[in-house]
Amino acid sequence: MIAALCAALPLLGGCLATDGGRRRPSAQAELSPPAAVPQAPAADAPPTLAAVGGQRIGSGAVKVALVLPLSGQGAAVGAAMRNAAQLAFDEGQQPDLTILVEDDRGNPDGARDATQDALRQGAEIVLGPLFAGSVQAAAAVARAAGKPVIGFSTDATVAARGVYLLSFLPQPEVDRAVEDSVAGGKRSFAALIPETAYGNAVEAEFREVVARQGARVAAIERYPAGAPGPAVERLARVITGPGATADALFIPETPEGLPGVAAALTKAGFSPARVRPIGTALWNEPALFTLPALQGGRFAAADRSGFSNFSGRYQAKFGTVPPRVASLAYDAVMLTAALSRQYGSQRFAEPTLTSGAGFAGVDGTFRFRPDGQSERSLAVYEIRNNATTIVSPAPRLLAKPAI
Fold first, then answer.
1. Which residues contact 43 (CB under 8 A, 6 or more apart)?
2. Interstrand relation of 163-165 and 149-151 (parallel, antiparallel or unpaired)
3. Phi and psi of 287, rounded to 5°?
4. Which residues form the Leucine-binding protein domain (predicted)?
5. Do 298 and 386 lie in a common domain?
6. Are residues 208 and 281 in the same domain?
7. 47-101: pLDDT as tens digits
8. Do 165 and 181 reside in the same domain of the chain?
């Protein structure tokens, strides 16, 4: 480890190392202990920074584009992500970066214009945008210029070679939840999946990971969003009663839809003590922890402690609570700062960005795959007595990438 880098970049710098001066991705990634959380915002905390296009953060030699919705759809979130980028720059000991803050106006045309403007100013990499269509538009411009993109969309279909997603993708969450269940002795899985784009994405991953783990899919039922009753009745034969053939039930529902699914399961006589419910990070809402059908259920999500620490520091500086995705902008800036310090002209090259060791961020270790999707170290939470506890901590190191 390079001591100066680790000290300057406590979250992301600690995952980068060198070997005798040779510039190559590190063999291991390490997480640093999170900083203490301020108990309350400072009384004289400055107001939230105005977030408009054309701003710059820093005046360093390495130019980085930060493309966000600072007006139009998503403007409030975009402003918070811009603030998180400022926080990263400040906590990164003023790295040798110039962050070109560009407004994509919350739409693809704006993203294309913003990216073109940033590239004309010499940006070497594009951070953002937030929405899937905007990522695609920005990527088309960046690819033509031979520059990589680190987008914040959760739509895995926009990922591609050179277009990396630093977001909370559902696929790793499905993998972690199923792998934990199999490790605990579960071998037969059923699923209740809404007929939504999210449902389509997670069903494909669910089938793949169950097969990969040597388990079986007992049954899958789909249902129109908001109307799970008939699907629960059809699935009852494998998830209720002494003759239940499944020992785990996958329910990838939103916080809004999950109470209806839970009520239908309870009405059908479902016992979570006999068939364990499992889900994704969408379950990570305290209002859901009281549902009888989810008691003993498990879901995979990033460890909350990292974001709690980040949120405390953000509140102390800006006087407001950051949205969940603000940590992505923070990590993206920390990452570019760390890579620019260590890897010179190869700082944003594909082998550097896709290091198998990954990088340590606010929400744990993450890495980019060559296809643009990301993998994260996730914890497994169990719902019990109207609360959650971690039953399987997030690993500090990611498993060796599959060949």
1. none
2. parallel
3. -65, -20
4. 62-386
5. yes
6. yes
7. 334 344 569 999 999 999 999 999 999 999 999 999 999 999 999 987 999 999 9
8. no
Helices (H), 145-212: 170-183, 197-212
Contacts of 272 (CB under 8 A, 6+ apart): 292, 293, 294, 295, 296, 297
Do the domain assignments include residue 37? no
CATH number at residue 204: 3.40.50.2300
Is position 14 within any domain? no
Length of the chain: 403
**Cross-strand pairs, 193:** 222
Q: Which domain holds residue 104?
A: 56-169+307-376
Share of the chain above pLDDT 90, in %: 83
Closest by CA position to 339, among listed 7, 20, 24, 123: 24
3 state SS of 373: coil
Measured between alpha carbons, how far is 63 from 124 in angstroms, rounded to an integer?
6
Looking at the structure, do residues 213 and 340 belong to the same domain, yes or no?
no
Which residues lie closer than 8 Å to 65 by C-beta, 6 or more apart? 99, 100, 102, 114, 115, 118, 119, 123, 125, 126, 127, 128
Assess whether pLDDT exceeds 50 at residue 162: yes
Do 336 and 268 sit in the same domain of this protein?
Answer: no
**Is 203 in the same domain as 290?**
yes
Contacts of 37 (CB under 8 A, 6+ apart): 308, 309, 311, 312, 313
Query: In what helix (H) or strand (E) does residue 366 lie, and over which residues does it extend?
Result: strand 364-368
Which of 102-106, 174-178, 332-336, 398-402 shows the lowest mean pLDDT across its residues?
398-402
Cite the DSSP H helix spans in 240-325. Answer: 258-267, 304-318
Contacts with 191 (C-beta within 8 Å, 6 or more apart), sequence order: 203, 206, 217, 219, 220, 221, 249, 250, 251, 252
